[in-house]
Each structure stands twice: as C-alpha cells, then as structure tokens.
Specification:
disordered N terminus; single chain; globular; alpha+beta; 5-stranded antiparallel beta sheet; about 375 residues
C-alpha cells in the first residue's frame, strides 16, 4: 500500500491540545549527553505545525524563544548524526533537512497527541462467546447469535436495574469467526450514561467496520444510532475542538477509488458528534476550522515525505480539504494546472438515467477529471468553485 493512502493519513490521530506551564516543562525539553530531539519541521503557524506533527508517530510541537513552532520526535540517543539522519530519511521518509537539537531554545511543549481511551471495553476476537462489562449501573453484554449456516451475528444488549434498555444487532458483521467490540465513552455530556460504541468487522479486502452507537438522551431514553460503514478501522475518538468533549472523526470514504486506486486516494476528514440522541455531521461548524487547517497541512506534508502518488487521487482529496477551510477558489486552479490529463483510472458517468454501479457497460462515458470532481464535491456537500 502506498504510504500516501488513507491509512497513512491516520498515522497519528489528533489528541487533546496540551498547553503546559513553562517552568515545569522547559527543563524536561532540554537534553543532555547524547540525547537529541529530531526536528522535522519549523513553522510560524501553530495549526500547520500540529498538522505536520500528526503525520509522525509520537511527534510533539514545541515553541522556541523566537516564537516559532518546532515539530519534533524523540528524544533519542544520537552518537552518529549523519548515520541516523540517513537512516531516518531512507527508512522512514523523514525530510532531508531534518536537524538534531538539544532543546536549549525550547520554552514550552504546546501540543502532543493524547489518545482518548474507553472507560470500559469488551471484545470478541475471532471466536463466538459472551463478554460483559458494568459501569454506573449499566451492564453491557456482547454475544453472538448463530444461524443454521454456522455464522455468528454480533449482538449487544444494555441493562439497567434488570431492565433491557437497548439491543443492537450488527448483521453486516456476521461471520464464522466474529470480530466485534463494545466500548464505553463519554461522548454526550448531557446523557446520564456513557455511550456504547459497538463495532464489527465485515471482512474483505480493505474493508470494513460497521458501527452502531447506543446512547441515552437527558431524560434517559435510549436509542441505537447507525454509524457509517468505514474502510479499515472504525471512527477515531478525539477532541477535535479542544473543549473536553470527544468527537468521532473519519475519512470520507467516497473518495476511495473515485479518482485513483485505493492506495493513490487521499480522503478528507469528516467530524461527527453525538448529542441529544443523534449522530450529526458537524464538520462545517466554525469551531472545527483549526482542526481542518491542521488536516490540510498534514495532507500537504505527506506529499513532501512520499510524493503525490497518483495526481488526481491526491488533488481530489486536497481540493476537498481546502474547500472545508474556505480555500476552494485558490485550490481549484492549482488542481487544473497539475492534474493528470491521461490518468490510468478515468472517472465515468452513465449516459442513461441509471446509477453508475448499475449502468450498462456500453452506456459508460469517460468524463474530464475537473468535471467529475466538481460533481463529487457538490454531491458530498463540499463548497465548489464559482
């Protein structure tokens, strides 16, 4: 799989932004002996620096005395700087202009990725069975129902005081070797109970995870919400706007295979929030603009590390990501200039009134990439150029 594909884009999920007290952190940033930070980038803009940091495992953003933000990994012992630099550039696609630093000029750690872990979880990992967990009076049971063909469908029930308050059945996760999980998160602060995120793996190449979310509204009424069927893993749980309440984030799977191969596709991020018994797409809310600007910076930095891959797959996702931060007018002419006009995978439309996947082979017509991208953006609710 090409590293510029959607899985690489999730290399380091965003966590809570941490602004730490200067006196407490400055001393720990300064290294001694052979220990050094690996500095992969330096930016004046914090969102750009965070976006770049998200593309490296365990990277941090530090502030320097000159006000700039450094993206660093490590620290690690460095006995031969030239040898380590060559290794990082060759084996891990670190930028060729990386430098090593003792951190003498670093004044604060301003961002690091922090995973939001579930408070409880149970899982079936390839074998049927029954698992139970309890929290705050809520008992959650994960089990399976076996059909006459010998396949098992994951089923999750929630009980309070001996009464069943919800049942979730993941029919698309039916398998002889079921893989399913139930995790407790606090996604809706108005709810009296934690939310139960239920996932099951459908199997198949590149695919897929189905998700349901059991949640109670403020009055204690339970509902099971249908989440998306997502490539690879399920939703990432992260605090996208830094307000202390986690959101669910995922790549827009409609961009996979739309303009390039799976590995050559770049997919923009979408943000969803659980509240008042609903699962709502909140991507376009103004408070998520910093997060979306970070995403653009990350997409752009990955092309520095790995190259653009398949041009049209990259520029489709990049234009969409730029559109979400109000920059589609600036991005569109760049795409027009740099597009692949003879791509190995040409977008198509049906010349009769049929869905593309149901279109007769002799009615499929190739269309130019910009035309197809404009239609795809419009259908997905993205801003389009005038």
């Amino acid at each position: 799989m090409h590293p510029n594909g959607p899985h690489a884009m999730r290399l380091a999920a965003a966590g809570l932004v941490a602004v730490l007290a200067l006196p407490a952190i400055a001393q720990s940033l300064q290294q001694s002996g052979t220990m050094r930070w690996v500095v992969v980038a330096s930016r004046q803009n914090l969102d750009e620096a965070i976006g770049i940091a998200k593309t490296y495992e365990d990277a941090k953003v530090v502030q320097s005395v000159n006000g700039w933000y450094g993206v660093v990994t490590g620290p690690r012992a460095v006995t031969n700087q030239a040898a380590l630099k060559n290794q990082l550039v060759k084996d891990e696609n670190f930028p060729k202009d990386l430098v090593f630093s003792k951190g003498d000029n670093y004044t604060a750690l301003v961002w690091q990725s922090r995973r939001i872990e579930p408070s409880r979880s149970v899982a079936l990992e390839g074998e049927p069975g029954t698992k139970t967990m309890t929290a705050g009076g809520l008992t959650v049971t994960l089990t399976t129902l076996k059909d006459k063909e010998g396949e098992h469908t994951p089923v999750v029930t929630g009980m309070i005081g001996g009464r069943t308050v919800f049942t979730a059945r993941l029919d698309d996760g039916k398998s002889e070797a079921p893989r399913a999980e139930a995790k407790l998160y606090r996604l809706d602060p108005a709810s009296p109970q934690p939310q139960v995120m239920i996932t099951a793996y459908t199997g198949g190449a590149h695919c897929c995870t189905v998700t349901q979310i059991a949640t109670a509204d403020a009055a204690g009424n339970w509902k099971v919400l249908e989440g998306g069927t997502l490539d690879g893993g399920a939703y990432a749980v992260e605090d996208a706007d830094g307000d202390g309440v986690p959101e669910l984030t995922h790549r827009d799977n409609s961009f996979l295979y739309a303009f390039a191969s799976y590995a050559g596709s770049v997919a923009p991020m979408r943000i969803k929030r659980v509240f008042a018994g609903t699962l709502a797409d909140v991507t376009r809310e103004p408070r998520y603009q910093p997060y979306l600007r970070q995403e653009v910076a990350g997409i752009e930095h990955l092309t520095v590390r790995y190259g653009p891959g398949e041009a049209n797959g990259y520029y489709a996702g990049w234009v969409a990501a730029k559109a979400l931060i109000g920059e589609v007018e600036a991005a569109w002419p760049v795409m027009l200039q740099r597009q692949d006009r003879n791509p190995p995978m040409k977008p198509q439309k049906c010349s009769v009134n049929r869905k593309l996947e149901e279109c007769p082979q002799d009615k499929l017509v190739d269309i130019p990439f910009p035309e197809a991208l404009r239609a795809h953006l419009s259908a997905g609710g993205y801003p389009v150029p005038r």
